[in-house]
From TrEMBL:
PANTHER family: FMN_FAD EXPORTER YEEO-RELATED, MULTIDRUG RESISTANCE PROTEIN NORM-RELATED. It comes from the Bacteria. GO terms for biological process: monoatomic ion transport. It is a multi-pass membrane protein. NCBIfam families: matE (TIGR00797), PRK10189.1 (NF007562). It is found in: Cell inner membrane. This is Multidrug-efflux transporter. It comes from Sodalis ligni. The chain crosses the membrane at residues 39-65, 77-99, 119-143, 163-181, 188-210, 216-239, 251-273, 285-312, 345-372, 384-402. InterPro entries: MATE_fam, MATE_MdtK, MdtK-like.
Amino acid sequence: MVNLLVNYSALLTEKLKHATWYQKRHSNRVLLSREVIPLAIPILIENLCVLLMGVLSTFLVSWLGKESVAAVGMADSFNMVILSFFAAVDLGTTVVVAFNLGKRNRKQARTAARQSITLLTLVSVAIALLIEFTGPWIIDLIANQADPMVKTLALSYLRVTVWSYPAAAIALIGCGALRGAGNTKLPMVINIGMNIINIVISSVLIYGSFSWHGLGFVGAGLGLTISRYIGAAMVLMVLRSELNHALRLPLKSYFTTLNPAVLLDVLSIGLPASIESVLFNGGKLITQCFVAGMGTAVIAGNFIAFSIVSLINLPGNALGSTSTIIVGTRLGKGQIFQSVRQLKFIFGLSNVGVCLLGLLSIPLAGLLAAFYTNDPEVIRVVKHLVWLNALFIPFWSASWVLPAGLKGARDARYTMYVSMLGMWGCRIVAGYTLGVILGWGVNGVWMGMFLDWIVRAAFFYRRMESGRWLWRYTQPKIAK
């Protein structure tokens, strides 16, 4: 009798385990088909379009010579520092909009979106004016020992593209608000349109048409700037249209007094994230200075390799943005367990995806490099860096996708501290030591970046497993 009960208990336990496994598998399949894919695919296409804005500018000038490629890389490395600040406030807007719509508070969500766009537009104009007067000093600082021709071209490109900042701010914040509302298709369509416009306008401005010879190198920056303003106009039109019912914002609503309480809610996430992004991209700018003295071919190869690696990481970045939206929405609804489970699922999915793409990039490295340039020395640099990236890519998702999900839970300060440690404690120190002092060149600078990934991955994975990132939502509420 005892044996019969033991056997029955073991059989029941086994059935329960099987049922739990089947239920979890079914739940993951539903999550993937109903939430992750509908959000991630449009974000992936949108991010691809945003990245292609810079990639296409590089490609369009690549046939003007490696000096032009190096110049665009130098100027864009600085532009990314500024745009990363806008993107961080965009993240804060996305989280606040998703959280408030999860609580069915549309008024607060609309106010947050409107106030963020107004504030960032004013800030971007001020930054553009400041850079206009300090451009030569900035290029001297970041170009360091680069060829004088590269520095001259970089300055001309920077002075044109700096006036695209207000348009970029409007487009980023507006698209972030739409994503927070769960509308990822409209930002995707807008960014596709911006890229088509950029290709057409930049091609004509660089190389001319019919009997007109074009503007040459300056045409790339001018085409990018014009296309961003057209994109910003498209975003504002969408925000005021019936297509965007949850966040409908008439144009006149932007000309209202700024609300400190609402902005504080956005900046409580956006400010730590912007400090993190600016310091992080500022650190990347310093590593560019390490490379600047290694020759024009290395500068161009380094920039092209970063462009290729960014394309490889796009699916992971899309899943990171998806995790921010899903975690923020779930926590807005009070669904704490669901937010944890879904973050872990998205992290695992991202890790598999980027590792497969990294593996695929090994045999295709030379072909991808040849898309940008026909210079054999530049292609050799690109191939070595892409191969190194494939070796260390298993650490990428934990260092980038996990913090995106943590920010959805407003755990932005922790991610800021870890990112600062990884950048300034590993990427800069190790990159300078290996690349400059020990003479490993650009490969050593990239090894510093991979050490940064490893440190970030360890801290963020431990944070996710500990559950401390949910402290705001698990503490008992004190009755007033």
